[in-house]
């Protein structure tokens, strides 16, 4: 009984030590999470690329600091498809890769375009923006940095505490004297292992975001007419498409007006019928009245002198 009681006490202690160790390892997680720095830093610009003084090298992460960097660019190019290949080459040259890519061909009044999501090492973000600026005319770009040092430290501490708890539970299992003690230890170990796997997945995802920055690149073409086609062929296709759109619009208008036209025709027929009936009635009344005979003229005979 004493051995059984001591084993239960050790299991309970193992279950309690892990969360207490995690909290004690990072007391700053309850309160200020910025570590003396703003939670996020961002810069934005429209037109030319950022000057050296505006780049984020002056706010590079310090030793032991965990920062997630993101950015996006809008670039006007002549051919989005070829430019997408150049953007891919830039990412691969810097040791990164293209996470996703979408290319849209010109259709009617919609010009060709492409969008790419790049992952590049965080230490080479400035190089990536400089290289991407050479692909075409940068019309806008945004950059942001989020300090996640407190969250990173907290996850690492919780993972370490759970690993210690799992190790102790395995030791308790090896010294279990009865089946009940073994089952109880296995249940606690399974719960701790599940929590440990989840925290390790969160930690890996966070570290991936810290190690590799995400850059969204949007490639568009410049149009001769603002908002219109960029060349003769696109303009011709847009004109043909507009004919179909005009025909479809005319059919829609006809469908809207048709009930009103039918109603107006019915009203017009009723009015015409009433007018004709009144004219016929007047004509009949005129024919029914007798025609008055004018009186004969009275003439006085004259006597001619012989």
From TrEMBL:
<feature type="transmembrane region" description="Helical">
    <location>
        <begin position="250"/>
        <end position="275"/>
    </location>
</feature>
<protein>
    <submittedName>
        <fullName>DUF4349 domain-containing protein</fullName>
    </submittedName>
</protein>
<keyword id="KW-0175">Coiled coil</keyword>
<feature type="domain" description="DUF4349">
    <location>
        <begin position="66"/>
        <end position="271"/>
    </location>
</feature>
<dbReference type="InterPro" id="IPR025645">
    <property type="entry name" value="DUF4349"/>
</dbReference>
<keyword id="KW-1133">Transmembrane helix</keyword>
<dbReference type="Pfam" id="PF14257">
    <property type="entry name" value="DUF4349"/>
</dbReference>
<keyword id="KW-0732">Signal</keyword>
<feature type="region of interest" description="Disordered">
    <location>
        <begin position="284"/>
        <end position="306"/>
    </location>
</feature>
<keyword id="KW-0812">Transmembrane</keyword>
<feature type="coiled-coil region">
    <location>
        <begin position="152"/>
        <end position="216"/>
    </location>
</feature>
<keyword id="KW-0472">Membrane</keyword>
<feature type="region of interest" description="Disordered">
    <location>
        <begin position="29"/>
        <end position="62"/>
    </location>
</feature>
<feature type="signal peptide">
    <location>
        <begin position="1"/>
        <end position="24"/>
    </location>
</feature>
């Amino acid at each position: 009984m004493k051995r059984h009681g001591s084993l239960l006490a050790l299991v309970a202690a193992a279950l309690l030590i892990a969360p207490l160790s995690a909290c004690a390892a990072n007391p700053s997680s309850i309160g200020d999470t910025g570590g003396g720095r703003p939670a996020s830093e961002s810069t934005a610009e429209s037109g030319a690329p950022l000057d050296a003084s505006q780049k984020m090298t002056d706010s590079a992460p310090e030793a032991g600091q965990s920062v997630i960097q993101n950015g996006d660019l809008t670039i006007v190019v002549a051919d989005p498809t070829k430019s997408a290949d150049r953007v891919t080459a830039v990412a691969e040259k810097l040791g990164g890769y293209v996470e996703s890519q979408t290319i849209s061909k010109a259709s009617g009044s919609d010009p060709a375009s492409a969008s790419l999501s790049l992952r590049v090492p965080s230490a080479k973000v400035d190089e990536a923006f400089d290289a991407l600026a050479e692909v075409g005319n940068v019309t806008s770009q945004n950059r942001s940095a989020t300090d996640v040092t407190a969250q990173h430290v907290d996850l690492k501490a919780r993972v370490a505490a759970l690993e210690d708890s799992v190790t102790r539970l395995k030791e308790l299992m090896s010294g279990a004297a009865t089946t009940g003690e073994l089952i109880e230890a296995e249940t606690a170990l399974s719960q701790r292992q599940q929590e440990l796997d989840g925290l390790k997945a969160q930690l890996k995802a966070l570290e991936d975001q810290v190690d590799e920055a995400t850059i969204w690149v949007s490639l568009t073409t410049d149009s001769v007419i603002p908002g219109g086609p960029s060349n003769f062929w696109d303009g011709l296709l847009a004109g043909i498409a507009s004919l179909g759109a005009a025909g479809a619009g005319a059919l829609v208008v006809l469908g809207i007006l048709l009930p009103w036209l039918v109603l107006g025709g019915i009203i017009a027929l009723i009015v015409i019928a009433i007018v004709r009936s009144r004219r016929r009635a007047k004509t009949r009344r005129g024919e029914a009245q007798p025609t008055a005979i004018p009186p004969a003229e009275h003439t006085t005979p004259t006597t001619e002198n012989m």
